[in-house]
UniProtKB/TrEMBL annotation:
InterPro entries xref list: CD300_family_receptors (IPR050671), Ig-like_dom (IPR007110), Ig-like_dom_sf (IPR036179), Ig-like_fold (IPR013783), Ig_sub (IPR003599), Ig_V-set (IPR013106)
Coiled-coil ranges from the UniProt annotation: none
Name of the protein in its database record: Polymeric immunoglobulin receptor
Organism: Corvus moneduloides
Keywords: Cell membrane, Disulfide bond, Glycoprotein, Immunoglobulin domain, Membrane, Secreted, Signal, Transmembrane, Transmembrane helix
Gene designation per UniProt: PIGR
Gene Ontology molecular-function annotations: transmembrane signaling receptor activity
Length: 644
């Protein structure tokens, strides 16, 4: 028997410890919440507000107010009932849209003091909250704490005002604990480490007013707070705040931490009510002294974030998606989603930037001339093979998707090939309006994933510095249907309704131009040299009129004449030599006369040749001078020929 009892106790211990370990304090109690204490004056009136989760069942369930009496709780008023002793001085009003109901009690008497419960359903079933009512005979009475019914993981905002005389004093928010009141945040830019990135103090109008916002409210954030001026407990003004945390199963749970890789991107989600079109959605980076606005839904984008951040609204799930790319180490910190109307929908997310390689890769800056063909390429890893890929052009309000072609689409039996996983956005031709930021990204089930940003600069004419990686560059022998990065595009690849040509033609035309250019220059040089040579030859040949004929006489002809005269003299000498054998008897006198005649004839021939050559030089120089002056007159040298 003892053993069975021991086993029973051991079986109970884990359940009890598990309950205390996993269930927060606020969840152990009822989700109904009200004031801890209510103070009233004799003959006066009080109003008690009780909160409840606005589920469909709770909205239509019975609400009640009862007074504790021993182990019982006697109903004073309920949805359709009023106790006889409270007729005409107690009422209950339900406000389901505000998630609360109110009890108003008038003509207070001292007997009204005691412990009460406000609740839902049947008395004593657990959906209730205990309230202590104290009736004083005369004022003053303590000021009641302001109640805040806050959803788990949502945002709490409180506004405090103590008059313009406190404008120069320190303002603070502290939380009550056993040792006093722990400072959460103050106007001296001091903040508790546990609330960094979560709490923000803001000055408001009128003078002396301020507000404190806390995001990502958790179970341990429930309790008593004080907002005030000066120092708590040192004579300054303060106000008591009672915060209750409850869980709403329908409230979306957003990520509190996002991790991104350097050079890559990060995605954040914010809540908003799509029915309220006037609501301004703001995304900012938290700082101790305030929240630095980066982007909003009206078209504002901070200058240093142009091309880096975009806001996408998703009315279907009542969220706004923020994408921040080109991550750097300095981007690490806390980012807030804020709204000018729905305070509880504000949220904060911590961004952590780690080292690593981005999944999407490609040229980040591209410059192209107007009228050229261009392809922006974006390569993705195997892990994104089944994701939806897209290109979009960034603007101040969104990033509209553009038609692009995904190479290496998965087939029935396709495997991930790392060589052709590229998404191409083509331009044919490039125009000045195409300049700007372009994003390549991936999606899955409608959720935004990684993004890569590319800045395109468009230059007029030949002022652009071509990017060989992207401008008209393709494989010399691409496979059929394949699109080389930054080069050719198939007919399925459309930009503004135009289908670009193949890059093989572009590549071939570029190669032909590179070959024919130098060849044409070489031919031009050869032709020019040949013309110069011919001109010089023509210049040396002069037109001469001899008698009634015109003929071309060159310098070589006159040199031939001179040589001929000399050779003729030699021939005469040879012809006068008689072989010894026929005329054996030759007198000395004949020999001497023959020699004298030969010498005389040789001298006469040489003089005639020299005279003819001198006449040619004169004529040749005259013709050259006339031709250099452009004179077409023909020089007549017939008298000299006669003399010769």
């Amino acid at each position: 028997m003892t053993l069975l009892a021991l086993l029973f106790l051991l079986a109970l211990l884990p359940a009890g410890s598990a309950k205390s370990r996993h269930l927060p304090k606020a969840s152990i109690s009822s989700p109904v919440f009200g004031p801890r204490q209510v103070h009233g004056v004799l003959g006066g009136s009080v109003t008690v507000k009780c909160f409840y989760p606005a589920t469909s069942v709770n909205r239509h369930d019975r609400k009640y107010w009862c007074k504790e009496s021993g182990s019982r709780c006697v109903t004073m008023v309920s949805t359709n009932y009023v106790a006889p002793s409270y007729q005409d001085r107690v009422s209950l009003t339900d406000h389901p849209e505000a998630e609360n109901f109110q009890i108003n009690i008038s003509a207070l008497g001292l007997e009204d003091s005691g412990s009460y419960q406000c609740g839902l359903g049947v008395n004593g079933r657990g959906l209730s909250y205990r309230v202590t009512l104290t009736v004083a005979e005369a004022p003053p009475v303590p000021e009641a704490a302001e109640l805040f019914y806050v959803k788990l993981r949502s945002t709490w905002t409180v506004s405090c005002s103590f008059g313009p005389e406190t404008a120069d004093m320190k303002r603070y928010l502290c939380k009550k604990d056993k040792e006093g009141c722990r400072t959460i945040v103050n106007s001296y830019q001091e903040i508790d480490d546990a609330f960094k990135g979560r709490a923000l103090l803001t000055f408001e109008e009128p003078l002396g007013s301020f507000s404190v916002t806390m995001t990502q409210m958790d179970w341990e954030d429930a309790g008593l707070y004080y907002c005030g001026t000066g120092e708590y407990g040192s004579g300054g003004k303060s106000k008591e705040l009672d915060v209750f945390i409850y869980e709403d199963k329908n409230f979306p749970q957003l990520k509190t931490t996002v991790t991104g890789t350097k050079g890559s991107s990060a995605t954040f989600e914010c809540l908003y009510d799509p029915l309220k079109k006037s609501t301004t959605r703001i995304w900012c980076k938290w700082r101790v002294q305030g929240c630095d606005k980066i982007i909003d839904n009206t078209g504002y984008v901070k200058y240093s974030y142009e091309g880096r951040v975009a806001m996408f609204e998703n009315p279907g799930n009542k969220t706004v998606t923020i994408v921040l790319n080109q991550l750097e180490a300095k981007d690490q910190g806390f980012y807030w989603c804020m709204s000018n109307e729905l305070k509880e929908q504000q949220s904060s997310t911590e961004l952590k930037v780690v080292d690593g390689e981005p999944g999407l890769t490609g040229k980040k800056e591209v410059e192209a001339p107007v009228g050229s063909r261009l392809g922006l390429t974006c390569s993705y890893p195997c892990k994104y093979y089944s994701y939806e890929k897209y290109w979009c052009k960034w603007n101040y309000t969104s990033c509209p998707v553009l038609p692009a072609q995904d190479q290496g689409l998965p087939g029935p039996s396709a495997t991930c090939n790392t060589s052709n996983k590229t998404v191409v956005l083509s331009f044919d031709p490039v125009t000045e309006e195409d300049e700007g930021w372009y994003w390549c990204g991936v999606k899955r089930n409608g959720l935004f994933g990684e993004v890569m940003a590319v800045q395109l600069r468009v230059a007029a004419g030949n002022d652009a510095r071509h990017s060989p990686e992207l401008l008209d560059v393709g494989d010399s022998s691409p496979e059929s249907g394949a699109v080389p990065p930054g080069g050719a595009y198939s007919d399925a690849e459309v930009r503004k309704g135009a289908a670009p040509e193949s890059s093989d033609e572009s590549h071939g035309s570029n190669t032909l131009a590179l070959v024919l250019g130098p060849l044409a220059g070489l031919i031009l040089i050869v032709v020019t040299a040949f013309a110069i040579v011919k001109y010089r030859q023509m210049k040396r040949s002069d037109l001469v009129s001899v008698g009634s004929y015109r003929t071309n006489i060159s310098m070589s002809d006159f040199e031939s004449v001179r040589d001929y005269s000399a050779s003729n003299s030699a021939c005469v000498k040879d012809s006068q030599e008689t072989p010894m054998g026929q005329d054996e008897f030759i007198t000395t006198t004949d020999t001497l006369e023959s020699a004298a005649d030969t010498k005389k004839a040789k001298r006469s021939s040489k003089e005639d040749a020299d005279l003819a050559y001198s006449s040619f030089l004169v004529t040749s120089d005259s013709i050259a001078q006339d031709s250099s002056r452009g004179d077409s007159t023909v020089l007549d040298v017939s008298p000299k020929q006669d003399q010769v």
